[in-house]
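ASSEMBLY PREDICTION REQUEST
Request ID: AP-0331
Submitted by: J.K., bench scientist
Number of chains: two
Total residues: 587
Priority: normal
Notes: Please return the full assembly, not individual chains.
Input sequences:
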Amino acid sequence: MSGAQRKMSGSQKKRGGWSWWYLLFVLQFAVMLWPPIYNRAEPSVMGVPFFYWFQLSWVLIGAVFTAVVYFAADE
Amino acid sequence: MNWIALGIFVLLFGLISWMGFAAAHWRKGDLDQLHEWGLGGRRFGTLVTWFLVGGDIYTAYTFIAVPALAYGAGAVAFFAVPYTIMIYPLLFLAFRRLWHVCAKHGYITAGDFVRGRFGNRWLALAVTITGIVATMPYIALQLLGIQVVIGALGISGTGFAADLPLIIAFVVLAAFTYSSGLRAPASIAIVKDILIYFTALVAVIVIPAELGGFGKIFAAIPAQKLLLAVPGPHTTGAYSAYATLALGSALALFLYPHSLTGILSASSGHAIRRNAAMLPGYSFMLGLLALFGFFVIAAGIDKLPEYAEGFKQFGNNFAVPALLLHSFPSWFVGIAFAAIGIGALVPAAIMSIAAANLYTRNIHREFINKNPTDKQEARMAKLVSLIVKAGALVFILFVPTQYAIQLQLLGGIWIIQTLPPVMLGAYTRWFNDWALLAGWAAGTFAGTAMAIAAKLTPTYPLLVGGHTFPGYTAVYTVILNLGVAILLTPVFNSMSAGRVPADETVAADYQA
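STATUS: Completed
Returned structure:
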């Protein structure tokens, strides 16, 4: 490892490194990437099968997660 | 011929054409400089960025093709929803870093960044050519979106007359992009989105009411289209295909030159992160729009004789126009079609600007004229934006539509191969630049071969130990790409021992 690289990884730890709030993003990815969770028709809401309303509601959940991370981890 | 719809369509098109030219004076800058013409001077705040990036990634073709896929193939089309859910954490984390470093060093393209970060102009060239080649068919598909709505308005003819409306739309687009640069699509995107939101909200309330509610609509959908097929033994079936399509599309999205252009034109890193929380508004709408495909099935519109001609000419892509024609009065159809048509102009303009920036910065300046003046550079970019659009127009007029769609599919597989140097490059300089180039070559070659083997469909049935894993080729090949880059990095580093890796950026450049 060269001196320049060492300096870089050191300063990365200080600024903008890992935040536990990012686990919300991990959760979001995990749920979306596992179709067996939501590939079902019941329970349906107002005639809309689970498959559709569940994924649509995760759009909103994802937006809330991002907002939470924005305020909690980065400000 | 639908005169009222046509009149409103032409009126709205005239309005946005005027806006496109007037935009040259908006947040005025010296358009003889490339970052002013090609990035709007990096002056767009949170709200304009929201419209611009939204107009950029939720294109007319998306609004036509996603419901068309739902209509034709059913539940799998809904992968667009997890896809657009996953792009925002990536935007929030990785591409914000990229914004900072690009603003700091005056980078305009991904090629600029890779050149600065890795000091290897051949790696930058690979990223540049991939970007341009992946963008071209995408522009052609936007023009296809315009073509479908023009056809649905009942404008028909033979030979040159049939193509005339598309050519007029193209000339207008080319002219205001030339004169106003990125300011034109940014200002038009605001009008376009108001029209799109209006159309989508009205349609998603009115049509289900006409059809007797969502319960009746979903009840009319055949069972095999309603959900993903449950995989049989020894295969992950539709599940792995669905998940990898969503993941691969998400990873690829912001690597496209036009997405990056939209991001880099933001005025601050805050604007980027706020947008990561606000842009899902579009995802929600896209999810609702996907359901339009089901509305078509439930209403039996594809069986009606008056739309048979359209379905014959445009295939499933005619589903949304037919649904709108069937369900709404002429004036509303005019607004809705204008929304789709203008929704094609915005991304087409940004794409041609992005491709022009790439050529000008990373091919022309790197290899042909090393010391251009600002004015020469801006003029070159304007010229290239014209050439790129003319190429797309010729393509869509003279080459079968199917080729544009297949090339766009290949484009997704190609563009994701720039992920290691661009997205991971925003985090680490660990990789050896030649190893990245080897990885890129391996991924591009394998991706193309696998796509051809899969008869130009997006998913490839990967066979491992008697189990089949059908998945998006882009995901499989970017893993190969990464593997090659990781294996070769220590090898190439040891061959050039003592050479200090070139990197004109420092860690602090990636932060606020």
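REVIEWER COMMENTS: Residues 19-72 of chain A form one domain.
SIGN-OFF: pending second reviewer
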